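step: validate -> pass
step: tokenize input -> pass
step: predict -> running
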Amino acid sequence: MIETLLGALKSPEIRRKVLFVAAMLVVFRLLSHVPVPGADPAALSNFFKDNALFGLLDLFSGGGLARFSVVGLGLNPYINASIIMQLMSGVVPRLIELSREGEYGRNKINQYTRYLTVPLAALQSYAFLALLNSQQVLTTTFDLASPETLVQIVILTTGSLLLMWIGELVTERGIGNGISFIIFAGIIGRVPGAIQTFFSAPDLAILVAFVAVGAAAVAAIILITEGQRRIPVEYASRVRGNRVYQGGRTFLPLKVNQAGVIPIIFSMSILLFPAQIAGYFTASEVEWVAAGATWIVNTLGPQNKIVYLPFYFLLTVAFTYFYTAFTFKPDETADQLRKNGGFVPGIRPGKPTEEYLSKVVTRITLLGSIFLGIVAVSPYALGTLFGDLGGLGVSLGGTGLLIAVSVVVETMKQLEAQMLMRNYEGFIK
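step: predict -> pass
step: emit ->
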């Protein structure tokens, strides 16, 4: 990995892309320390210390939510907008058509996702301010008629949109997926503070055990992430014009975990949404509203592990199947093979090939979904076994570790691909 990185940095173009990504991540980390005016720091710290729900949401903002920073909402509005658009893409006829129109359709859906992010960010900003006001964290008057509240909503909304823009810039001008990089930076940004907290009162035996479990987890993540089921494909000889194309044998790679980390992020967003919304009404003056909201928070919140963990696991498994079905279309793949003269040995082209691919994908996705489910709930198991470890158990727990490892692996693969392309270009020239 280090050799790949050092080799890539020798190329001026790749070096420029890497430096651009690094600069954007520095900007993100700086913005996460710029506070929105109007909050009591001590009351804010106490609120997040005692609130498991928002402490979990704070993980993906790199601590920006707990600091009440301008990017405190992180990419949560954009992620929620993406979930809504992907669900609608399987139901709304117009969106179904766009999803089948290749690059143009994807760009159009991404455009609609950006539009949807704006009202969601504004709504979440207002709801978060209402919650802070109910907990007596805000030092300003909370009222939509108040200029201070409007300014706070605009700042939080703009910060979330700015992060979305930075993520797209990284994707376009840098290397890798910008949104994943920002989430990665948010998770990694919490690690130094967690390490410092742990070493203020270290327990070496627990630390060694934690490192051993972490190393095994990294190996398992890489194994599953890179695991493939290779479907053999043969091509018959064909004539096009005056040319005869000889047949050959290749394979169709089907990844065990085609969905990546998206199902975990989606399931966490969906599962936390009811408790998050209910949390805004726990201080309601209407008694039955406050009682109902409190019950929802206590029942569905991360602190109630008996209910939260099974639902988290099942939602992750379900979203893995959903996202895999959304990204991999057996009918389209079978049709492309048939049009190009390819076939799976022993399987007739057309409908039988589609059914075969669908069966194979369903089987390997089962393994991938169970793995993602275990990864999703593992931070809580780590917390039970090793304690908080100064926040390391949460920061580098299953979800955070999976995102971090996946981002690093995908980035290294893209660097290798770009280096290979440039070496071939040099060879041809």
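step: describe -> The chain has 18 helices and five strands.
step: cleanup -> pass
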